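Hi R.,

Here's the input for the magnesium ion complex you asked about:
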Amino acid sequence: MMKQNQETESTKSKNFIEQIIEEDLASGKHESIYTRFPPEPNGYLHIGHAKAICLSFGIKADYNGKTNLRFDDTNPIKEEEEYIDSIKRDVSWLGFEWDKLCYASDYFDQLYDWAMMLIKDGKAYIDEQPGEEISKQRTTPREPGIESPFRNRPVKESLKLFEGMKKGEYDEGSMVLRAKIDMNSPNMHMRDPIMYRILKRPHLRTGDKWNIYPNYDYAHGQSDFIEGITHSLCTLEFEVHRPLYNWFLDQIAKPEEPRPRQIEFARLNLTYTVMSKRKLLELVQGGLVNGWDDPRMPTISGLRRRGFTPASIRLFSERVGLAKRENTIDVGLLEWAVREDLNKTAERRMAVLDPLKVVITNYPEGKIEEIEGTNNPEDESAGKRMIPFGRELYIERSDFMEDAPRKFFRLAPGREVRLRYGYFITCNDVIKDDEGNVTELHCSYDPESRGGNSPDGRKVKGTIHWVAKETAEKAEIRIYDRLFSVEDPTDVPEGGDFKDNLNPESLSKTIALIEPSLKDTTAGDHFQFERTGYFCVDKDSTDEMIVFNRTVPLRDSWAKKNK
Ligand code: ATP
Ligand code: MG
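And here is the predicted structure with magnesium ion in place:
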């Protein structure tokens, strides 16, 4: 009884793909599980791909299976080595290891042989009509299609022409190889789909060997089959292609040979984000962002540069879960995930983003003392560091208010505040320039409150961060807002363009003053700047100027929490 309940419990928490896999293992249909991730190398991977990667590679980990990384490189026009390299880097960075690195082009010979076999079996033919004519004859799903005049041409003719196509005897666009399936099928993909086209282009991997290239739909299912993939996981738009993949396998696989089972899931959509390689490429090529790894991009390389961690993306992906219907996830969930991770792992530092000078009039001139700060309250092993303190400091301009309401627990004339790890200070004088702007505050400190501890039990509600003027370093801070200003950037009026929805204020820069321990950092290092957010050292940093990207702001400032 107990056991049964437990089983029900555990099945409940499984998603529909895990349930299928467990059934297939339990029934003995498969002894082990083999998945793959099949990107086309025509752009950089984005967070949607990360979701698909976490899914397929996650199954490998959960069921002690295998996963291939396979490049679906059937279109030499759009594919580039740079993309292949970036995809490998991104999958590894996410923390996954592929079992085999494969390319659809590895199978071009086999695919060609199978195509010859289909022609010989009367199941494929060469069509010499122009592409538009072929599309037109497919009509609409509700009407019957129109058969090509070449559909019933002799097998011999098609064989000869196909061989000629391969040898480069015909011009691009002059003919194609089509599968002979069903011109009346309600599924348009079954209306004699194109298998091969002439493209006299060199291929990244096969060079000049081929003058013809298989269409994705002809290559994809067979690639899974050749690699012995058991579960081929892909997004919903491929559901309507599944009958076609099965049809090809029906023609070429022996009945006893194991076939991949394709299972579809809903693609990930995020608010304020576009997620199509084509659109992302448009942003890159139009110079609207600074490359594929611009920290505002939803690409894995952009997120990495922004300061997202592999663990945060895996956590996000897990929380998104699996759906069978299209939906849109709040981009806030991604930001939540990175805070979750960085809160545990990022060391704390102090940096003042919008500095206002403070002079502690009763502090000895020229004296610098070192006071101790905790690197990460969530992780004792991160240890402590020394922070220089002096007579002149900077605090955040927003931490001072001249006419402060009663509930403003920071600095105001006559009020006392705690400097993080430092002392209690009280604001005595406000110095202004000719235009009435506050330029500096004169404060006094309580020498008995060292370390931020109250000497006599008196309460100080506010705690603010600071840096000592004498030892402060400058840093460039890049603050990012959403790249698009509307939730669904692709929702545009007739004749509009998704680029019209770009947020003109998605990037702002400022010079901050940072504590000196931040000087020794390398690109990719993560920090929490106390009270202002999580930041990551950018690759643009130089010896003269460190550059930080703000990954995300802090949701709650610890000043509030520590109230
Ligand atoms: P895009 O439509 O963004 O250009 P794509 O689907 O053309 O992407 P592929 O390289 O063909 O990109 O995708 C590789 C794999 O990633 C496919 O199996 C696809 O189903 C999956 N994938 C692509 N986009 C998403 C997404 N937004 N969410 C989940 N999986 C995705
Ligand atoms: Mg695609």
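One thing worth noting: The longest strand covers residues 424-432.

Cheers,
M.
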